Amino acid sequence: MRILFGLAVLCAVVVTGISYFVLYRYVSDVPENKICGNIYIGNVNVSGRTKKEAKKLMEQHLKEDAALEITMKVGDKSAGATLEELGLAYKDIGKVVDKAVEYGKKGRLFTRYRQIKGLEKEKLVLNEGFVLDAEKTKAVIEERVEVLAEHAKDAGITKSADGFDITKEKKGETVDEKASAEMIRKYLNSGWDHKGFKVKMAVKTEEPSVKASDLESIKDELGSFSTDAGGGERWKNLKAGVDRINGSILMPGEELSVHDTTAPYDAEHGYVEAGSYENGQVVDSYGGGICQVSTTLYNAVLYAELEVLERYPHSMLVAYVDPSRDAAIAGDYLDLRFKNSYDTPIFIAAEIDSANQMRFTIYGKDTRADGRTVEYESETLTTEDYGVTYKENKEAELGSMQYAGSPHTGKTARLWKVVYENGAEVSRDVINNSTYEKSDQIVEVGTMSDNAEAAELVRKAIASQDKAAIEAAVAQAKGMSAAGSDNAGEEN
């Protein structure tokens, strides 16, 4: 009996040893540095690839996926974008490739055998792990998809001869950016067939920010100011700026930026080239004259006693208001910004009237005391007369003089706010201090001549910036040129 038991144990050990040897030989046949057969990452077969080869293959496949287009629908409207524009990327493709390489090569011998053997019957598909760039996706949705939604409409108000006409607000919808982006991401990671696709964007209710009931308090004129609109091309820019500001409603605490409201200044948005200040000179640029729009509004804001957040003087004096009453606009670095400091909404009406006066009127609920009025006084502190600067013009005839540039007197000034109660002055405060640079009269002196000596004579005189010396040199140079001409006509 003991002999039989011993033989059984011995046989079991032998069989187990043989089985272990078979399993070991089976799993050892798989190259350690290559991915087992029948393994996919997404729809990419990475079987037999090294880690480096698999990563390169996946990076190439990502480029192909990124070129595909997604159609984003809101109602019956749609907009398209490539997945590249949404910032399609892998979350961590290196980690996924590592998982593919390690499959069948880690753990107990039987586990490894079972994994490798199972690949003969069924492929293993690992998810790529797609992500979208949050900022890029947001930018695409805001630019192309938000405009498709039927957005809420704020209540509006207009001034008529009989008073104010109010139009009611309307609820709408807006695209839920985060929910939509997450929906796209989930689709990409849930059996996506790597083809272009359509998606119905998530939307949510949008409430109007201004309601008719909010505007019922607008009854009074808070402040008004006008300037002459002039004519020519510049007038077109004034009209374009006025139209963009007209009808603006500011709720309590809300701000308005003149630059943001009226820009961009280009032909597409109704602006033309007209005179504007640049480096102390008047040059033509798109939107030239928009500063008169901001200046006129600035004065209306002062009379309405709204809070001014940002205001800058021009580099040189302007003709349409007194010093320190102007407000310059330049690029995105000089702006006029103000805030509704009342507890109720305000409404800005803007027009160029039949008398060609550009007028801004600010309406709201006047809570200032009866008999209280404000005035603004401009005080000039210093004055610097402009001079004359002589410059050479190599293309103009020798000795010719042409006036150029735009001469301006320099000044420093301040603006006073004077408050009256029942006609009596009760306070006087400085609102701003402004500096205006002088701009010299430019006189271009011609030096074009066949007589190099005569031209050099005038050139040296120009360098002295002395009017008498320049005039004397011009007279002498002309004499030299005339003499040279006579000598050229003599025969030998």
Description:
InterPro entries: G5_dom, Glycopeptide_resist_protein, Vancomycin_resist_VanW, YoaR-like_PG-bd. This is G5 domain protein. The protein is α+β, with helices and mostly antiparallel strands. Among the domains are: 217-368, no CATH class; 375-485, Resuscitation-promoting factor rpfb fold, CATH 2.20.230. The protein has helices at 2-28, 51-66, 93-102, 109-118, 134-145, 177-188, 212-215, 232-245, 258-262, 290-304, 452-464, 467-488; strands at residues 39-41, 44-45, 69-74, 77-82, 89-90, 124-126, 130-131, 156-160, 163-167, 172-175, 197-200, 203-206, 220-228, 248-250, 255-257, 273-278, 281-286, 307-310, 337-339, 346-352, 357-364, 372-384, 388-397, 401-404, 410-421, 424-436, 441-448. The strands form ten sheets. It has a four-stranded antiparallel β-sheet. Strands 2-1-6 form a three-stranded mixed β-sheet, with helices on one face. A hairpin with a 2-residue loop joins strand 16 (273-278) and strand 17 (281-286). The protein is flat, with a radius of gyration of 40 Å.
Number of alpha- plus pi-helical segments: 12
Q: Compute the number of strand runs.
A: 27
Low-confidence stretches: 3-18
Strand proportion, as a percent range, falls in 25-35%
As a percent range, the share of helical residues equals 25-40%
Q: What's the average pLDDT?
A: 89
**Largest beta-sheet characterization:** 4 strands, antiparallel
Write down the Rg: 40 Å
What is the CA-CA span between the terminal residues? 151 Å
- Structural class by helix and strand composition: alpha+beta
Oligomer: single chain
Shape: flat
Q: Strand order within the widest sheet?
A: 13-21-20-14
Keywords: Signal
Pfam family, one: G5
Domain G5: 370-449
InterPro entries: G5_dom, Glycopeptide_resist_protein, Vancomycin_resist_VanW, YoaR-like_PG-bd
